[in-house]
Amino acid sequence: MVDLKGNPFYLKDEQIAWVNRTLENLTLDEKVGQLFCPIGMSTDEKALFDLAANKKVGGLLFRPGKGEEMQQAHRYLQQQAKVPMLIAANLEAGGTGSAIDGTRIGNPMLLAAGQDAEFGHHLGEVCAKEGSAVGVNWAFAPVVDIDYNFHNPITNVRTYGSDPETVLNYAKGFVEAVQQNGVAASIKHFPGDGIDFRDQHLVTTVNTLPLEEWRSTYGKVYSGLIEAGSLSVMIGHIALPAVQKSEEDAFLPATLSPVIMQELLREELGFNGVITSDATPMVGFCAAMERRLAVPTAIAAGCDIFLFNKDLDEDIRFMKEGIANGILTPERIDEAVTRILAMKAALKLPEKQADALLVPTKEELAVLQANQHVQWAKQAADNGITLVKDTADNLPLRPEATPRLLLQVIGPYEEANTQITSTVIPLLEKAGFRVTLYQPEDFTTGFESVSQFRSKYDAVLYLANVENRSNATTTRINWYTFFGQGNNIPWFVDEVPTVFASLENPYHLMDVPMVKTYINTYDNHQTVIEALVAKILGKSDFKGVSPIDPYCGLMDARR
Asked: Would I find Ribosomal protein among this entry's keywords (predicted)?
């Protein structure tokens, strides 16, 4: 039984009437369509028409594009849809989750380092206002995982850190702000990532906490956000053995587990809103069960929305086969679709559809990079950048003392690294430094004397641009050269002042414990880079406080 008047829907009688009337008028095929939220592969109108008018999917997500293009695609989709669609985006760090010309405020860990939970609210407001300007009404955010395991390659700076109370406080502000501005939140990834060191894109991961410890950490966070009214929860491909009743199900991903979704989330935590799976092409889902069974089982077990597809036509066929063979009952379908329609009603999508206002006018795109949003981004950077240690008093760097500066940018993507250097080098040169950009040596040129090194460089600045990302098993540094050959690895920390700044992963001290000056910025967008350079030059104080253990428990890293 879905409580349409209670948390989180709070529907009025006329809204409930719309939900019931719409459900009654849907065919079985149309109900099945509502269960799916595929990823948009093209803004071509023929492809969009097929999704909205033929397959009648309940929602869609596009990867970020230009705001105007996204707005046009979303408008066309909604014009073709019989039932207004949920338009989703990964609005984790700002409006750039839906439009590349939006405002990036910063990764959640940057905000947590600033020690001002009001920035959770600011982030939610920016995400909602800029997202809704292009037609988005569903945020796949906030991330409420807890970053307990510094080896985890996918949580990392996407989280608010390793303290459950901090995660709850920031995420609560986000949920309240985003939903006050007409966009549904989706707290993720239940039952909680950050314990395992693996990634659900590649394998089903395991939250190994005993149940009582889970309740006092992840359970506390989810309970608080459910009470705050989050309209949806995203289920991760994460096992929680402590709650399972049989050894056979111990490592079943939550997306296929009725115990986790129905008994733990719905009954114990009291969640009444929409449950969506995480992306189902992930190996953490695909490898857990034969897909023709997994597709209907996910809905039968408790998911209301099935996110993304290996092949949409095939997954629709698998869903219908599951209905025919009894895996998925008509009653369960109606319950899931009722919740989906209730969330659409709570967002006032039927009224907006009637007034042709589901997607705003082109003029509304002016909110992208609004002055207030840009100022919040600058403030977040200034507040959050953290000086972890400076035991050799290397800061600030001054051109009169160390004019010849070797700059090293370390990261797997050349284009991203080039964007960093194009910002940093002009700022350093304007300050008076003569900057040499490191070029990897080969075996024949890799050895030189200490005297030769010191004759060329007075100081070294590292910028580690190693982002956490899907399908990466680690976010550690891959050096360009062999052991101490060349000048890549910081063998010279006792020869010249050496400053190491990580622009993303805050745990690099495990690999460079020898550096005496270490900084975490938690994000690599231009506003953060500019703020970092100002702080390195002594023009701005370091204000951030680490929301995690940057030393990774290593005593030698503190020296």
From this structure: no
**Catalytic residue (choose from 145, 193, 199, 278):** 278
395: DSSP letter: P
Helix H segments across 61-163? 67-80, 108-113, 118-133
3-state helix, strand, coil in the chain (%, to 5): 45, 10, 45
- Mean per-residue pLDDT of the chain: 97
Q: What pTM, to 2 d.p., does this model score?
A: 0.97
| Domains of the chain, each with CATH number or no CATH | 13-367 (3.20.20.300), 385-558 (3.40.50.1700)
| Residue matched to tokens 């050496």 | 498
Question: Is 278 a catalytic site residue?
Answer: yes
Q: What gap in Å lies between CA 556 and CA 499, rounded to an integer?
A: 17
User: Where do runs of H (alpha helix) occur along 11-66?
Assistant: 13-25, 28-34, 45-49
Cβ-based neighbours of 292, under 8 Å, separated by 6 or more:
318, 321, 322
State the Cα–Cα distance between residues 15 and 37, nearest whole angstrom.
23
The set of residues, in sequence order, having a beta carbon less than 8 Å from that of 505 and lying 6+ positions away, is 156, 157, 464, 466, 467, 468, 475, 476
